[in-house]
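Supplementary Note 2. Why include the ligand at all?

Several targets in our set were suspected to adopt different conformations when bound, so apo predictions alone were not considered sufficient. For every target with a known small-molecule partner we therefore ran a joint prediction. The input for magnesium ion is given below.
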Amino acid sequence: MKKLVTLHEFIMDRQADFPYATGELSRLLSDIAVASKVVSKDVRRAGLLEDFLGAQGSTNVQGEEQQKLDVIADNQFIQMFQSGGEVCGIASEENDDFMAFETEYSKKGKYVVLFDPLDGSSNIDVNVSIGTIFSIYRRKSEVGTKATLEDMMQVGSEQIAAGYVLYGSSTMLVYTTGRGVNGFTLDPSIGEFCLSHPDMKMPETGRLYAMNEGNINICESGLKEYIETYCQQTLPGASRPYSGRYIGSLVADFHRNLIKGGIYIYPDTETDPEGKLRLLYECNPLAFIAEQAGGLATTGRQRVMDIVPEKLHQRIPYIVGSKTMVEQAMSFLK
Ligand code: AHM
Ligand code: MG
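The joint prediction is reproduced in token form.
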């Protein structure tokens, strides 16, 4: 039998590639893995536990109804970051403002984490895949002081690491530190993430497109034209049109396209003129992974990782996936 490489072993091996690494980023990645195991356990039993399913009865700063599990996952990750010592502050999709940790111990942390604790909230109650998405930056402010807004509002190309955890038919953690993308599957029998998808590459093209097509008549006409001309026609040399696949959890749609090749589109629409997805918690981390795996991420006009953030909960139009497919879609945008 092939020897299993655990996430912990993998992180430690990679740390040796950076001669001056102090181990803090490695510890932070390990902490994220631990928190995600706890969340995974909660997600797996949610239907049995009264306090886990359904709406929390509150809305987040973006006016979206929070689910109980959104809040449980958010607290779980925050607690882990607060106690780990590597992180001086965080920003989460579920909180109005960023949090600068108060203790002297945390103030010494070099990193900030921006995250969406449970992406795909509308799928929580119906047992469809959901996930956690995270992005790690080195702080801009001085070590030993409190984290600042400037630490959070960095351009995506400054990310030190990014990843996601998919609570799907199995739980997987996929991450990059800028040297390729690797995927780990949680083996529940030993409680460890083990390397299952080394050096992931997104196929250069594919046959899957993911978009909420309910929005097709309220988004830019070029996109409608792309979908109708490219995705819904049998192209020369093909036996049938592309297949539409839309889970409605970005992290799950992205993961499928990463493995099989495809495109994900959430445009700006008449009802969401800035788009729906959040630059800092969703778009940047997945853009980093996409690019590291050979794919592309754009607003249609600009590379996502070049956007200078203007506000914490900023939304953008988002097209991400296989390189050739994203380029084709862009060629239809005026
Ligand atoms: P969330 O972070 O509150 O779950 O919102 C983001 C989600 C994405 O995961 C998903 O792709 C999209 O919103 C679905 O939106 P819609 O229901 O408009 O298709
Ligand atoms: Mg989300």
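The domain at 208-331 is CATH 3.40.190.80 (D-Maltodextrin-Binding Protein; domain 2). Residues 64, 93, 116, 119-122, 212, 248-250, 276 surround AHM (ligand 1) (CB under 6 Å). Comparable summaries for the other entries are listed in the accompanying table.
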